[in-house]
Each structure stands twice: as C-alpha cells, then as structure tokens.
Amino acid sequence: MEHSYRFADRMRRAPESFLGTLFAVSRDPEILSFAGGLPGSRFIDTEGIARAAEEVLEHEGQEALQYSTTDGYRPLREYIAERYRKRLGLPATPENIQIVNGSQQCLDLVAKIFVNPGDGIGMESPGYLGAIEAFSLYEPVFHGVPLGEEGPDPERFAAVIRDARPGLFYAIPNSQNPSGATYSTESRRMVAETIEESDTIFYEDDAFGELFFDHRPRPPVSALIPEQSVLSGSFSKTVAPGMRIGWIYGPEPVIGQFNVAKQAADLHSNHLCQMVLSRYLAGHDLDAHIRRVSDAYAGQCSVMCDEIDDLLPPGVSHTRPQGGMFLVARLPPEISASRVFEEGIREKVAVLPGTPFFVDGGGDDLIRLNFSSPTEEEIKEGMRRLARVFRRLGGS
Amino acid sequence: MEHSYRFADRMRRAPESFLGTLFAVSRDPEILSFAGGLPGSRFIDTEGIARAAEEVLEHEGQEALQYSTTDGYRPLREYIAERYRKRLGLPATPENIQIVNGSQQCLDLVAKIFVNPGDGIGMESPGYLGAIEAFSLYEPVFHGVPLGEEGPDPERFAAVIRDARPGLFYAIPNSQNPSGATYSTESRRMVAETIEESDTIFYEDDAFGELFFDHRPRPPVSALIPEQSVLSGSFSKTVAPGMRIGWIYGPEPVIGQFNVAKQAADLHSNHLCQMVLSRYLAGHDLDAHIRRVSDAYAGQCSVMCDEIDDLLPPGVSHTRPQGGMFLVARLPPEISASRVFEEGIREKVAVLPGTPFFVDGGGDDLIRLNFSSPTEEEIKEGMRRLARVFRRLGGS
Q: Mind telling me how many Å the CA of B351 is from chain A's nearest CA?
C-alpha cells in the first residue's frame, strides 16, 4: 500500500517547473537550444580556474576544505565591495555583503526573512521564473506590473506599491530575464521615488549588469534608496555558474537577518570554490574578460535579431536588448507559444514559452530566446529550424 | 532616520545562535576549542583532492563549471547508492538520492516540504542545535523526548508520536550530536514500530554513522520503515566539509517534493565540487581512509574520557561514545555550564553549554565536548585548563 504523505501547504503553491525540462532539453545534443539560460561554455576560463584551484589546494588546502563562517570568505567579500565602490560608486563594505550559492539562493532567503503567507510581492510582468518558483513557496500574493522596454509601467507600479503595500518588489533593471529590457534613468528615478514613499523593500537582482554591450554600467536603483533595498549579484554569468557563487548586498539590519536565515539553510557556501574564485579574481583582469564575453554576446544578439527579422513571419516582433543573455519575441495572434515549443522540439530547436514568466496568467503570445549559449552559426541554424516551425504553424 | 523593517514573523522564532560564536572561537589560535564541530583538519586528504580537482578541470572543466541539474551529479549519486546497498543493505538507487549543500540543507528543505506553522516536530532532548535553528524558522511546536545512552525514552517517545502526531521526528541514531549516544538495536526496533503506527515521517540524520570506533555499521532505522523515513548523509565528516556536499535518501514521492524545494532554494549544489568529489572517491579507498580517521577519533575520545575522569571533579560524569565526534559531560549541581563557558574563555579553553540543544529549556547542567578536532596533546592541555576552571568555580 502506498504511503500517503502530509506535505506542507506551501508545496501546493509550487508552479509547474520548466527549469528541469529545460536543463534536460539543453543536454540533448541534437537540439539547438534557445530555451536555457546558460552562459556560453566557451567563455569559461577553465585553465585560469584550474590554476587558481591548484594554488589554493597546494597552499591553503586545509583551510579551503574545512568548515568556514556563514557570511563567506572575507577576501571575496572585499573584492565584491571594492568592485561595487569603483564600478558603481556604492558605499559597500564586506560587512554589507554575504556570499550565497548563486543568486538564486538570495531569492529564497530574502523571501524567508521578509514574507509572511498572504503578504504581497510585486514583480515585473513578465518576471523571472526562478523568482516566481522561489517566492511561491512562501505563499505570497503576487502583483504583476507590466514591463515595457524602458521599465515598469509607472502608473501600475505606483498603484501596486501604494495599494497592495507589498513587502517586496522584485526587479531586474538591467537586461531583464526574460525580456532583455533595461530601465531608463527616468524609470529608475520613478521607481526609487515611489518606493521611498512606501515601506516596501526593493529587491534589485543584478545578474546581468556587467554584460552591457556598450560596457557602460547603469546606476543601480539601490543607490537611490540604500535603506530600502537589497542588491544581489552573481559570478555565474561573468566567471562560471558551476561554482554557485553569488552574493547579496544590503543594509546591515537586513544582512543580519539574512545571515540567520543562511546559517539555518546550509551553514555556509562551499568554501573551496569561494577561495578558488577569490584567487582567480586576484590574478585576472575581470573587466577584460567581461569585455570579451559581452562583445561576443552583442554579436550573437545582433545575429539573432537579424535572423528573426529576416526569417520569421512579419507578425513576429522582438525586444532589442542592450545587454544580458535573453530577448523575447512576440508572436502573431494565430500562433501560440506552447505550440511553437512543441513543434520546435520535433524540429530540434528549443524555445521557452512565456507562460511561466507571468504570475497573473498570459504569456502564451511570447517566447524567450537565449543568445548567450549558442554560437552565431548555431543561432543561424536554429532560426532556420524555427522558421520551419512557423511555416508549419501557419504564421504569415 | 533609521528605517524600520517589517521582517517575517518566522524570524522572531530564530533561536539565539551559538554557531557563529563557535566558529569565531575556534579561530582564535590561543583558545583550545572543544566547542566546535570540526573534523580534524589533519585527516583531510588535500593532496588527493587536489589531484582530483586537477583531473576534473583538465578533462571536464567546461562541464564542471557550467550549470547542472537540481538532483545532483549522477555518478556521485550512483556512488552513494552503491555504498548504501553494500554497506547497509538499503535498496538505494540514484533516483532516491539528491545532492545538497551539506546535510544542514536537508534540515531546511525537509522542514520546508513537511512542516506547516504550528505543526509538531519531535526531537531528541538534547537535540542537534543546527536542526533546532533550521526547523525554528518553520514555526513548529517542538516536542522533546529525553535521550538516554541507548536511545529515546520509549514511553515518552510513544506518547509524543501518538498524542502530538508530529509531522516529523528528527533523530541522530548513530553517535548523536551532542550526546554521543547510539541507539541500541532494541531502541531502533521500538522507534520503527511506533512510527509505523503513526503518520509521522522519521528523519534520520546519519552524519556520523561511518565513524564508529569498531568500524561496524549499525542498521538504519529507515531500513525498517522505508516509506516513512528519510535518511541524510554527508561527506563533511568523512572527506571534507569545505566542499559542502551532503545528500538525502528517501521514497520517490518525498524526493520529488524535495527536488522542487531544492530547485527553488538554489537550483543545484556546486557542480565543480560534486565532480571533484566523485572523481576523488573513484580513485581512493574511502573505507581505508575512514578507518584511519575513526581509529584516530577513538584514541582522542579515549584520552578525553580518561582526562575527564582523572582531572575534573568526581561530580562530573560523561557519556562514552561508540563513535562520532562529541560527548557530553554532566556537571555537578553547583556549577552551571554557562559559567564554565565564560570562565573557560578566560582560561583559553572553549566548551559548549548544553542550553542551545534543548527545545524545552534546561541544559545548563551539560557541556558538549568535541574530540575530533584537537589532537591528543591538545585534549590533555585543554583538560588541564578546564580543571583550573572547575577549581575556580568550586567544583568538588
């Protein structure tokens, strides 16, 4: 007889997951995948990281392989703080920074410290599906605000902050996932001013802020409202995701609670990779590396945009990212994203339907396309396959 | 003006943390620490791990540094499953196993999938403080069951399971932290039979089951109630804690929900360390390594027991562990554990008071002593310092 399990109520809130399917799809070698969210493997400096690992294990092996503190390896936090000071002018210190297992863990822990069941969480619409998955288990009420190419709709944003009083508003102002949108300076100011009149915490996820094609940093919203914001970052897109090293930066009372939650969650992030990464960064010019990566992504994005314009039906429009790894294409009314996904798999090209990015329904008129993982040649071939899909589905 | 933050209600449930203090204390080079929970650094095979890291980064670097799947690196899960089959006779497959960031993460995620606010959680008393910290944030009602040297008090155990109907009962049947107690065969049977008549899930934390001084495995309680249990394990005590690699083993419906929670929490555990560990294990005789470690710990434990008997007042009694890393000493009524802690720091010896191990008060008559991290010489010197503390506090 099968045992009947009493799972916690929160588990019923878990959205149907796409991430697992996606990772699986991105491992089928015959499928050209625009569906995943992987940085290009060819841009990972495995040799440099191998040398750093060798040095750490030779000179500091016992320390690297032993338990450590919850806040994270201090030289790594110093590096992050200094980079924030130089690059973005933030008054960051190591005390304001905690290391996590990739910035996905910030989503879990920030929700854990701020969100009671039934509390509001504001999000961009479309919004990052990993955030929707993490937040859902805290049983919030989601409030979506439509996201345009310049930022969230100001009136809807103000209405959500004022009327729903969400504990958090979660956003990716730089090269958003999935849309690729980057907030304008005016939009950043609007967001900060609206937040400042509320007691909402602005949760700024900056996974892509280093990857602008013009190499110019954009000023974080957090800088305008330092007491009412947290800012998360990650080495997954700039160095390597497989080490799972991200961080959170925020005001000390918040970081204090975050530390309590992190310690309860897993004591500390893996110490070996923190030390390897720290040594790697000390011996390498990260700016030069990022410049190479973002130049390549700029080229890949440009090819993808051109191929959509040239090969897909005229009813398909798309965003034009200034950086990052993703864009979205909007489909003509007669074609649904889920059909494009299904037919795409048959044609050996994978795209991600927009539906999992919406907390309030919709999204079947959008597909998310990743341009960081495939090469330019793969983008061209994938787009040819996608064109066949659209022809079969009758796009005009 | 300081911003006033609206933290979630669950954060008020966080117990005052000792772990942070402890890690700090264990880094002051002048203090001889029996307070921490570190495996002996001298038993970490840094050279072997360095070679494995070199090989992985040379031959599979791009894969190791890229995103991966939530369940964990399959060859590592196969290794764990095979070891369970051979060593404990469990019908384990990789599908029943998920990799986590050290088994502390299982505490968080198992509570996440099973515990609603107000649900009961049963625990040994004293119980593992890291579990109390993790579970507390799920706002449970704790039910402590007194733990003797042979296992939990049978009547109290039955009463808690029957009357409180906790969703989980959490236990460490092998060389428990803090007490060092190991359940007898009879106690294991009693626990399984009582659980079987309930719908409680038995959460068996087996962090120390490889470290028996007689090298004999003890049969897990989980084997008797496979549908109603989860079993967690860790490489932190056998190979190296700094890689943060542990796992959970359980029935498929539970593992499915666990996977959802793990993905939301941090996508996956660090892939580089999973691959390094897997390669290390493939090329090394883990049994031989563990035999060396547990022989050393047996010697250190024996020295510690002898020194307590010889140097501390006769009113001090202590457990006699069969394995693991900890024992507890019970103090005479006139001496409080918190005073021993405070005076110990002045005398440059650190012990851990019993209070944080109790969900229902008490514990100031106990101290936990770690014998895995210090050498035999350090144990002797530390015990001399501790004897001075007791003399000053007037122990007779």
A: 18
Look at domain A61-283 and name its CATH class.
alpha beta
**DSSP states of A299-313:** HHHHHHHHHHHHHS-
Strand ordering across the sheet containing B151-152: B97-100, B246-249, B229-234, B201-205, B168-171, B120-125, B141-148, B151-152
Alpha-carbon separation of residue A265 from A262, B72, B136, B327 (angstroms): 5, 18, 11, 25
10 Å CB burial of residue B328 (0-12, 13-18, 19+) is buried
Reported CATH class of domain B9-45+288-393: alpha beta
Q: Quote the ipTM score.
A: 0.96
Instruction: Provide the token pair at B75.
Output: 């060859």
Interface test with A, best of B5, B18, B44, B227 (most A CBs within 10 A): B5
Would the CB atoms of B260 and A14 count as touching at under 8 Å? yes
Statement: the pTM of the whole predicted model exceeds 0.80: yes
Phi, psi of B248 (to 5 degrees): -125, 145
Q: Which CATH class is domain B68-283?
A: alpha beta
Same topology for domains B9-45+288-393 and B68-283, yes or no? Answer: no
Set of chain B residues whose Cβ sits within 8 Å of the Cβ of A107: 264
- Residue boundaries of the structural domains of chain A: 9-45+288-393, 61-283
- Structure-token pair, residue B346: 């002045």
Neighbour count for residue B24 (Cβ, 10 Å): 12
Alpha helices (H) in chain A, listed in sequence order: 19-25, 46-59, 61-64, 74-88, 104-114, 129-136, 154-159, 185-196, 252-266, 271-283, 286-311, 337-346, 376-393
Q: What's the average pLDDT block by block, 10 residues per block, for chain B (396 residues)?
A: 87 80 72 93 96 98 95 98 98 98 98 98 97 97 97 98 97 98 98 97 98 98 98 97 97 97 96 98 97 98 98 96 98 95 93 94 96 98 98 79
What is the spatial distance between Cα A238 and Cα A293, in angstroms, rounded to a whole number?
8
